[in-house]
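Researcher: Go.
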Amino acid sequence: MKKVLSLIAIGLIVCSLAACGSTSTKSSENSGSESEKTEKTDKTVQKEDIEKLYTNADEFKNYKVDLYVKVFDIEQDNNGTYMQGYGDPEHSNKNTLIMSEDSSLDIKDGDIIHVVGQVKDKYEGENALGGMVTAPRIIADTIEKSDYATAFAPAEKTVKVNKTQNQHGFAMTLEKVEIAEKETRLYVQIENKSKDKISFYDFDTKITADNKQLEPDTNFSAEYPEIQSEILPGVKTEGIIVFPKIESKKANIILEGSSDNYDMTIKPFTFELNLDK
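Model: Structure:
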């Protein structure tokens, strides 16, 4: 149930964008005094109030807002760009409607965007199944593309490793390790410097710590770049391998691969990680 808001929502965005564009010029006439206008536009939705924004956006009308959203519906015309997305893509929650006067935005379904703008109001309507849904409508000042880790799983700790192990031309590099609130991310690069095809399977990667063995996890919402499993001579590939969050101060990261040249034995690549830095 990807598009939970009806198409009416997008229609209302289109109809209201022109009004939104003129809000700032008319507000001094309608809001009373200049000081009242300033008081409204200078306020910002705080992080601790984000949940309230999604239950009653009218409480934050004209407030400045800074959000990350994963887009799942987008329309454009000569007047602007109108987007719909989730502020919580992992749970398909926090519906958000975004309006921009920029009709040339290079945004597509599935993109994660960083939106800075102003709260217009609270949208209420029915979805395709007849259920009532609500969403804040945001007038965007700026929109920039972002990524899942930055937007929804920021690193609490980053350990830069940048170490390479080379076995018979199978060059394995552990670039860095990021530990977020709910996951650990390994940034790995492989280069085939040999004359034969090599293979790597990320699901064979292990982390050992405190006499425990951690297996790779899956974050379907993140769509992190994946390392290619079959790597031809001269090719580089890189990606992110996700694990549960590491709580230990020290750990071993073990990555395995093989070569099509069976005369060559590729031993597991082991990287010692010190998280107490």
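Model: The CA atoms of residues 36 and 230 lie 63 Å apart.
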